[in-house]
Design brief:
The complex is a heterodimer of chains A (about 190) and B (about 375).
Chain A: H1 36-48, E1 56-60, E2 63-67, H2 73-82, E3 90-98, E4 106-113, E5 120-127, E6 133-135, H3 144-155, E7 158-160
Parallel strand pairs in A: 2-5, 6-7
Antiparallel strand pairs in A: 1-2, 3-4, 4-5
Chain B: E1 2-7, E2 14-20, E3 32-38, E4 41-48, H1 56-60, H2 65-73, H3 80-95, H4 101-130, H5 134-154, E5 163-164, E6 167-168, H6 176-199, H7 202-208, H8 216-221, H9 227-230, H10 238-241, H11 262-286, E7 305-313, E8 316-324, E9 332-336, H12 338-344, H13 346-350, H14 358-364, H15 369-373
Antiparallel strand pairs in B: 1-2, 2-3, 3-4, 5-6, 7-8, 8-9
Helix pairs in contact in B: 2-3, 3-4, 4-5, 4-11, 4-14, 5-6, 6-11
The chains are: A alpha/beta (about 190), B alpha+beta (about 375).
């Protein structure tokens, strides 16, 4: 007689929800620890970044971050690439992070490195869940093309002005955005 | 291979659309490339990826930190240890863990061996791409020695799960130094043999010299990294320009190409193997005694924050963007895969070259589809 056995503590493969029943744990925050190069960049950015771009310079662990509104994103990127002191000529990656609970749901993080001055910086911008639209940076770096396509594929963020946002990792006609936190992990019909 | 003819409306010439893949032996995995040719010249190409998309980044969000290492093994399945290292470095950075010296040295030795193994595989397969059967036999002979050594250290030939957060899983076996020296002796001879076998072969040169060139600034613009970027004359190696782990203690060079063509991309990798041997020799000489892992709990809860760690994998800049919300699973893991970005430049490299060279150009990027699709 076949016996079916269910594991008592089988972990549910669902998206993480804040546990309400448990004792609340105070969550520590990783302290900033810039290296000398990072501090140099931090000071330089404070000096030379034009104030009309409404950018905010901060530090996250070991990385200098520039938070910009999406309207001035392209100008900031172009400035970082062209400025003779910085020369951020290499866009390392574009990551989309889904902060489900936040009003500005999607944070798009551009990590860039300069291959002549060897500074590195992260540019961050946020978009609302209702209209996740922001301008493309493919005019600044051509490598943004696939990174943005991936972001559109998995998170449904629309990069305005990008020539070809057709599915890259998913197949044509895939329903939904599997990168989002709200996308069910196991409870969907495969194929 | 599927061929589709279409008459060009403007000048009456016929453009052929040729479909390569996804099941094609020379695409190194499930990769589809659509090529439009005018006669023998490629006028346009379009890579299609995603056949191996497993949603690794999404799976990471529901796994404990220590469980994710195995997922990273399966991303770059030829340079496993290098991928493991990238994730562990990111987690260690956000947790601010000091890794013991011995563990760092073990990591460097194994990662560099893995780099040689990966380049050896490239060398053999590239020979096949060019129509030479012999190189793969030599390459696998050398690679096998490294794999055997890996097996004695990690217990597995490919999916090691050996590098852990805070250190490594186990200490080295007692006879490791002796075995390593044997392997290195074989390798040094083997690399020279492999180099002599094909690199300066006239037919091989004719097939690869001046084929699929890309300039340095173009390569940077496309996000190309690793040997493919260095072949274009850009001296960029994260192990030197932005050192991680203990790479700043070793003395080695960055091999650089000149023209950024297929031969340069091929030869940079051969030179890199020699440099890796140098690193391993230095590391093995200085290998200290001591702990192999920091005191890290099995289920770690890193503080809230974000880190971005770049490492030099055999294919280029393998970066991990890790967002932690303070819980036992990461909030977001984004992998910046080198093959993914390198593949973007394929269109540029193929443009205007002969159809017969398409396979060679594709092979010279050294794609790993597990990493491209994640």
């Amino acid at each position: 007689m076949p016996r079916t056995k269910t594991l008592p503590h089988k972990r549910q493969m669902v998206n993480k929800k804040p546990s309400s029943g448990r004792r609340a744990r105070e969550i520590p925050i990783a302290p900033p620890c810039l290296d000398p190069r990072g501090e140099e960049l931090f000071e330089m950015l404070n000096e030379i970044l034009p104030p009309d771009l409404k950018s905010e310079i901060g530090v996250c662990v070991d990385m200098v971050t520039i938070t910009v509104p999406k309207e001035s994103l392209v100008q900031v990127c172009q400035f970082l690439k062209d400025s003779q002191n910085l020369l951020f000529n290499y866009l390392c990656s574009i990551s989309v992070v889904d902060y489900e609970e936040s009003e500005q749901r999607f944070e798009i993080v551009y990590h860039m490195v300069s291959l002549s001055t060897y500074y590195k910086v992260a540019v961050k911008t946020s978009v609302f869940s209702a209209d996740p639209i922001l301008p493309t940076v493919t005019s600044v770096w051509r490598s943004a093309e696939w990174f943005e396509r991936e972001g559109h594929d998995l998170f449904g963020v629309i990069f305005l002005g990008h020539g070809n946002l057709s599915p890259l990792l998913l197949y044509e006609g895939f329903d939904g955005f599997p990168g989002r936190k709200s996308f069910p992990f196991h409870d969907y019909q495969e194929w | 291979m599927q061929v589709d003819e279409k008459k060009n409306e403007t000048d009456g010439s016929i453009d052929l659309m040729i479909n390569m893949g996804p099941q094609h032996p020379s695409t190194h995995g499930v990769f589809r490339l659509v090529i439009w040719v005018d006669g023998e010249r490629i006028i346009k190409s379009e890579p299609h990826i995603g056949y191996l998309h497993r949603g690794s980044e999404k799976i990471c969000e529901s796994e404990h930190y220590s469980q994710i290492v195995t997922l990273f093994d399966r991303m770059d399945y030829v340079g496993n240890l290098n991928s493991e290292l990238a994730f562990c470095l990111a987690t260690e950075k956000i947790m601010d863990v000091d890794v013991p010296e011995r563990a760092e040295y073990i990591r460097v030795i194994l990662c560099e061996l893995n780099r040689i193994a990966s380049h050896m595989l490239f060398y053999g397969v590239y020979g096949l791409d060019a129509g030479a059967m012999t190189p793969i036999l030599y390459a696998f002979r050398e690679r096998e020695k490294i794999q055997n050594l890996f097996e004695s250290v990690t217990g597995a030939r490919m999916m090691h799960n050996y590098i852990r957060i805070g250190g490594v899983k186990d200490d080295l076996p007692i006879d490791f130094q002796q075995r390593l020296h044997e392997v290195l002796d074989h390798l040094k001879r083997g690399i020279e043999e492999c180099d002599a076998l094909i690199s300066k072969n006239e037919m091989f040169l004719a097939r690869t010299k001046g084929v699929g060139s890309i300039t340095g600034p173009d390569a940077i613009d496309f996000g190309v990294t690793g040997p493919a970027l260095r072949a274009s004359g850009v001296a960029e190696d994260i192990r030197i320009t932005d050192p991680y782990s203990i790479y700043d203690r070793f003395d080695f060079n960055i091999p650089v190409g000149t023209y950024g063509d297929c031969w340069d991309r091929f030869y940079v990798r051969i030179e890199e193997m020699r440099e890796s041997v140098k690193i391993i020799e230095q590391a093995a000489r200085e290998l200290p005694e001591g702990d192999i892992s920091a005191a890290v709990r099995r289920i770690v809860r890193p503080p809230k924050g974000e880190v971005f760690v770049r490492t030099e994998s055999p294919r280029g800049d393998l970066a991990v963007f890790l967002v932690s919300d303070g819980s036992d699973t990461p909030y977001r893991v984004k992998v910046r895969a080198p093959s993914f970005a390198n593949l973007q430049a394929l269109e540029q490299m193929l443009q205007g070259s002969y159809l017969a060279d398409a396979v060679l150009i594709l092979g010279s990027i050294d794609l790993i589809m597990g990493e491209v699709d994640r």
